Amino acid sequence: MTLEKEDYKEEQRNKVLAGALECFAQKGYEGATIDDIVNESGVSKGSIYKLFKSKEEIYFQLMSQNSKELMDEINAVISKHTSALDKLTALFTEYLGREVNSKVFKSFLVQSEFELFSSRREDLRELLEERRRAKVNIISDVIHEGINNGEFRKEIDITVHADIFWSYMHGNITHKILYPDLPYQELVNGQKESFLKKIRK
Amino acid sequence: MTLEKEDYKEEQRNKVLAGALECFAQKGYEGATIDDIVNESGVSKGSIYKLFKSKEEIYFQLMSQNSKELMDEINAVISKHTSALDKLTALFTEYLGREVNSKVFKSFLVQSEFELFSSRREDLRELLEERRRAKVNIISDVIHEGINNGEFRKEIDITVHADIFWSYMHGNITHKILYPDLPYQELVNGQKESFLKKIRK
Amino acid sequence: MTLEKEDYKEEQRNKVLAGALECFAQKGYEGATIDDIVNESGVSKGSIYKLFKSKEEIYFQLMSQNSKELMDEINAVISKHTSALDKLTALFTEYLGREVNSKVFKSFLVQSEFELFSSRREDLRELLEERRRAKVNIISDVIHEGINNGEFRKEIDITVHADIFWSYMHGNITHKILYPDLPYQELVNGQKESFLKKIRK
Amino acid sequence: MTLEKEDYKEEQRNKVLAGALECFAQKGYEGATIDDIVNESGVSKGSIYKLFKSKEEIYFQLMSQNSKELMDEINAVISKHTSALDKLTALFTEYLGREVNSKVFKSFLVQSEFELFSSRREDLRELLEERRRAKVNIISDVIHEGINNGEFRKEIDITVHADIFWSYMHGNITHKILYPDLPYQELVNGQKESFLKKIRK
DNA sequence: TATGAATGAGCCTTCATTCAT
DNA sequence: TATGAATGAAGGCTCATTCAT
């Protein structure tokens, strides 16, 4: 009953978020209108505003949700492998295989815009930083593990390399989004090799 | 006289573009209003619309100009050095030293937004591609030179590595813009080493 | 059973009207939403619309009910006294003693807004007039009685003085609502004296 | 030049305020839309929002302006007479003669709504009080003068009677607005007599 | 029957663009 | 030519009312 109702609301919320993701990916945050989201999600304007306080809140919740999903996916990939090297390799190749039209890429596109958006707003700086920490921590843990395993060198600065990893990812995925016809695979392979060469024993 | 007039117009145009850069950097393309640009540039609204057809045109011309300036700067850096290795090294360190508030970073921020913007518009895809080619060509030339010089390995795929170079740059600068308090220098050094290690003999 | 059902409906209707009074008093007619009334009354939206055709109808019925209640209260006060003078005196003092937060004052506040509202709507003019007649009649009767009793002067225009009475009341209560910290009692006493002095023999 | 421009803006502002007065009088503050004001004033929506920050600001400025105008009018009436008694008498009769459709009555109607509006908003309480003070002061001064002149009794509480004066006025004008067909004149005369009888020697 | 989710007209406000001076 | 006032389309959001369960 109450549970069902909550489930239903959750479902509606997800429909809105899914529609918003599509719209923001297609037209950008400012370019997408609530009516666009209404059309895309099939949820009426009034309902949307019962579910979310404002367009901005939709944006934030979408970003938050996507961020969590990204983390979950990464953790899923990581847990499929045992050696630290395999884990990192898998992360590189994992994103490599996706379609540019896949949800992951759409999310990334919207996340990229959100990052620019946040960088202009003092009140979102902390959120940005928090998200960076989450991403860095995941990779730091793997590198740490690799060092303990004897796979990676002791001397490397773990945090810096985790940051470098994400900087690679960022440049990479952006590249693929902007220039979808490029020989992306070779590019990623190149970066993967560079990165791993630096940290492997 | 006509020349003088032309000069004056040029000057006004530049004032508008400079103002627009500032505004777009601070508020984003959609967030910045024509009135913002009027205030920032000191050029009246009427004049702006005499100089440019629309807000979008200001955007495009600003992006085009910035793109050229970027190329000029890069060429300037490159021509200060003789060996290919020094040239690439300088490019890495050149950006490394800038202030996040410098014009280069502002330009980059706005360029980043523009790239997302373009990626959503079919009619700008070609422009995007063109700009990529320009950037890739500069680096390709240096790598090519390095190969001929015997500094770099013969076997490497020149274009792919030029792309990788820019992917690095992108991830890098984005990182610095988003997280200005990070130990950016170490990060860039790390990437520089990775990259150069891969292509050097 | 049908009777019981009718009672129940009546009870619900009253809950809605009570809630509406509270809401309209706090936020004004336009400012109060149906949801406010739902929250305040504890009656669901669907039920409210089963009980009343529209928000406006709630307003009208509330005003009508309040008007009747006001008349009842006045009659109650009047019937407690025997001389006409005492009756009028009691009416002055009766309102004097109330709390600004009392239901009477809330009603008055909402009635005041309703009067302005009605004065702008041709179709409500007659209703307005009718309510005035009811109020004037009550006082007219008392004055009439006083004249017959020999308490009041024969020459006074009964209707005019009944109107003056209500004009006093209106200015008075409005004053108290708008400026709750004023020495209201002295004010009312002053008016009471003025009024009574004019009509007493 | 700048002066002219300022004059022009002032003129536009007045057009908007005049239009707003008309609209608010006809439909009430909430009922009147910006589009109504656009139509009534002949000033476009964009221009209105260059002149005023919001609909509420139009409201406040209109109320403030009207309040001042009311004071000016009262002062004008007062200064036409020399004895305190004549001054007060004139104030009673001055309003008596107006048409219900006159600007004064429209203003009063809108002011009445504004008073109810303010009484519901903590942040406007002070403004309300301030306006009461201004009105009370004018009358207090006259009564004071009358006491010094020997026209009025020494013992009366000046402020209380100034308040009573306005309470009369309020009840009075409201009466006329609500029931325009009433024998208003007799009513006012009655009140005038009551009031003056109480304070005269 | 009772509920509250769904709907969408309509509001206030912004801002790119035009136009009169 | 230079200016900024004028315009109104379009967007975010609210809320009275309806409707499905």
UniProtKB/TrEMBL annotation, chains A, B, C, D:
Residues 33-52 bind DNA. Signal peptide: none annotated. Residues 10-70 form the HTH tetR-type domain. This is AcrR family transcriptional regulator. Keywords: DNA-binding, Transcription, Transcription regulation. The keyword Lipid metabolism does not apply. Transmembrane segments: none annotated. The keyword Electron transport does not apply.
